[in-house]
């Protein structure tokens, strides 16, 4: 794997270089001391991965990420991992970079030979390994979908669930900013982000929405007028009593937390009226056709959405939800920063609708208000 380093500090570049070359299969493509130089070098030599600093002179990491991800060169967009010593103090910049397509963020590894320094180096190498697996697109989600088990529940709020990865923070903000303060549904977000940044992501999204945004807590049920964000490196799942939990199942799944794992738990347990399910066996209704009205158990069909992201996470889970009677949406190619996850959902026939990002929020509001 050819990896480039972008950092304005020579000592940081050297630290990263040594870590990269400690792995036999990794090579150093090039280094750059600021974002402007990185954009220029990437245009002529796009590597397999760029380790991008956040705060630099001339051009910072967020803007450099935007320019690289929109470069029309044949090998672009290039996967980008934010690696910076200022992650905690610049959460908004981290999510700005992720909104432009950076896959994740990790703290700059510490120098030295102590246990903490070794742990920080291992954390970076784990991230690189995950991205390499995503880049090769060889990983498949193999979480089995068991026979549907419906819990006995009198009423549940209308539910909207969203899976996203690269480009996700910006796309998520566009969707939830449209939801009104009297929105009667519950929203659950599965964004590929390290647990060190999930609380900051929830806080940042809270500033983009009229609804309260918080991390999904173990043992809590989804409530109306609330947005929940998966909060750990384990997978968020729904339990038979419709409460949140976290599971380390599917340890080989490179996407953490995984939209597929959460979606499939919903397919197993979230109640959907029998009339809604009766018309969606197999691959479900054809795109554009009206689905039957649900039973009184669920006044509106729940909605599942796959947004921009690298890889295939969410596609199989979205298909499972469509078979169970959910209304399913995938973001279109034109508005996706990385057209991986929604493309996989489209090719699998998992999405009832393919929508531009600016259409998804209004579609959610319309469906919960009018039922169509």
> What percent of residues adopt helix (DSSP H or I)?
25-40%
Please count the helical segments: 12
Work out the oligomeric state of the chains in this entry: single chain
- Summarize model confidence as the mean pLDDT: 85
Strand order of the largest sheet: 8-9-7-6-12-13-14
**Beta-strand content estimate:** 15-25%
Total beta strands: 14
| Gyration radius, in Å | 21 Å
State the order of secondary-structure elements, H for helix, E for strand: EHEHEHEHEHEHEHEEEEHHEHEHEH
Fold blueprint:
Blueprint: E1 2-6, H1 10-21, E2 27-32, H2 35-44, E3 49-52, H3 61-69, E4 80-84, H4 91-99, E5 104-107, H5 115-136, E6 159-164, H6 168-176, E7 186-191, H7 195-206, E8 212-215, E9 226-229, E10 235-238, E11 244-247, H8 259-269, H9 274-278, E12 303-306, H10 315-323, E13 327-331, H11 341-347, E14 353-355, H12 357-370
Parallel strand pairs: 1-2, 1-3, 3-4, 4-5, 6-7, 6-12, 7-9, 8-9, 12-13, 13-14
Antiparallel strand pairs: 10-11
Helix pairs in contact: 2-3, 3-4, 4-6, 6-12, 8-10, 10-11
Q: Quick summary of this structure?
A:
By secondary structure, this protein is α/β, with parallel strands linked by helices.
What this model shows, in words?
- This protein folds into 2 domains: 2-136, Response regulator (Rossmann fold); 159-370, Rossmann fold, CATH 3.40.50.
- The protein has 372 residues and is of the alpha/beta class.
- β4 (80-84), α4 (91-99) and β5 form a beta-alpha-beta unit.
- The N and C termini lie far apart (47 Å).
- The chain is built from 12 helices and 14 strands.
- 35% of the residues lie in helices and 17% in strands.
- The strands form 3 sheets. A 7-stranded parallel beta sheet has the order 8-9-7-6-12-13-14, with helices on both faces. Strands 2-1-3-4-5 form a 5-stranded parallel beta sheet, sandwiched between helices. It has a two-stranded antiparallel ribbon with strand order 10-11.
- The chain has helices at 10-21, 35-44, 61-69, 91-99, 115-136, 168-176, 195-206, 259-269, 274-278, 315-323, 341-347, 357-370, and strands at residues 2-6, 27-32, 49-52, 80-84, 104-107, 159-164, 186-191, 212-215, 226-229, 235-238, 244-247, 303-306, 327-331, 353-355.
- It is globular and about 60 Å long.
- α2 runs parallel beside α3 and α6 packs parallel to α12 (357-370).
């Amino acid at each position: 794997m050819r990896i480039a380093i972008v950092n304005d500090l020579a000592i940081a570049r050297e630290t990263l270089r040594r870590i990269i070359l400690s792995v036999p299969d990794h090579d150093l493509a090039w280094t750059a001391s600021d974002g402007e130089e990185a954009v220029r070098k990437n245009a002529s030599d796009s590597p397999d991965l760029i380790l991008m600093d956040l705060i630099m002179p001339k051009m910072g990491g967020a803007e450099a990420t935007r320019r690289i991800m929109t470069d029309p060169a044949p090998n672009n967009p290039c996967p980008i991992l934010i690696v910076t010593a200022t992650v905690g103090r610049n959460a908004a910049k981290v999510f700005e970079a992720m909104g432009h397509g950076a896959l994740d963020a990790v703290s700059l590894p510490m120098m030295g030979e102590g246990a903490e320094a070794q742990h920080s180096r291992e954390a970076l190498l784990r991230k690189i390994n995950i991205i390499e697996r995503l880049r090769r697109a060889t990983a498949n989600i193999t979480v089995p979908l068991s026979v549907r088990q419906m819990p006995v529940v009198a009423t549940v709020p209308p539910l909207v669930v969203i899976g996203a990865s690269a480009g996700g923070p910006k796309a998520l903000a566009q969707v939830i900013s449209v939801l009104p303060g009297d929105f009667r549904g519950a929203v659950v977000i599965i964004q590929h982000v390290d647990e060190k940044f999930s609380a900051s992501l929830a806080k940042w999204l809270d500033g983009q929405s009229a609804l309260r945004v918080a991390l999904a807590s173990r043992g809590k049920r989804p409530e109306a007028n609330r947005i929940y964000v998966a909060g750990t490196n384990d997978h968020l799942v729904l339990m038979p009593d419709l409460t949140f939990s976290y599971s380390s199942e599917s340890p080989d799944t490179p996407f953490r937390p995984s939209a597929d794992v959460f979606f499939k738990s919903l397919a197993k347990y979230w109640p959907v009226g029998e009339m809604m399910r009766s018309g969606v066996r197999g691959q479900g209704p054809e795109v554009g056709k009206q689905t039957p009205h649900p039973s009184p158990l669920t006044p509106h069909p729940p909605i599942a959405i796959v947004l921009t992201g690298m890889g295939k996470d969410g596609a199989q889970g979205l298909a499972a939800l469509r078979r169970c009677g959910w209304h399913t949406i995938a973001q279109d190619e034109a508005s996706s920063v990385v057209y991986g996850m929604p493309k996989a959902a489209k090719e699998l026939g998992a999405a009832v609708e393919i929508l531009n990002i600016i259409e998804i929020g209004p579609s959610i509001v319309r469906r919960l208000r009018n039922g169509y």
